[in-house]
Amino acid sequence: MKHLAAYLLLGLGGNASPSAEDIKTVLSSVGIEADADRLTKLISELEGKDISEVCGNFSFGF
């Protein structure tokens, strides 16, 4: 979940296509080591998708 959260934060910050390295940078800035396997899977699953499309798949109940 932390990898996805970093991806979404980068997207909301204007990075339309966050890379694995971008996500590692965000996570390491708060003392979290990225899991390479999970990160690779996340990037492959989200490749080519728009941030709003990804966010649209969540239901927050507001």
Layout of helices and strands, plus pairs?
Elements: H1 2-12, H2 20-29, H3 36-46, H4 51-56
Helix pairs in contact: 1-2
Explain this structure to me?
The chain is mostly helical and 62 residues long. It has a single domain, classed as Arc Repressor Mutant, subunit A (Orthogonal Bundle), CATH 1.10.10. The protein contains four helices and no strands. The chain is globular and about 30 Å long.
Spatial gap, N to C terminus: 20 Å
CATH topology: Arc Repressor Mutant, subunit A
For the biggest sheet, the summary is: none
Helix share bin = 55-70%
- Estimate the mean pLDDT confidence: 88
Broad structural category: mainly alpha
Number of domains: 1
Could you name the CATH class? Mainly Alpha
* CATH architecture group name: Orthogonal Bundle
| Strand/helix succession | HHHH
Beta-strand segment tally: 0
GO molecular function, one term: structural constituent of ribosome
InterPro entries: P1/P2_N_sf (IPR038716), Ribosomal_P2 (IPR044076)
GO cellular component, one term: cytosolic large ribosomal subunit
Protein name: 60S acidic ribosomal protein P2
What's a concise summary of this model?
The chain is mainly alpha-helical and about 60 residues long. The protein has helices at about 1-10, 20-30, 35-45, 50-55. Helix content is about 60%, strand content about 0%.
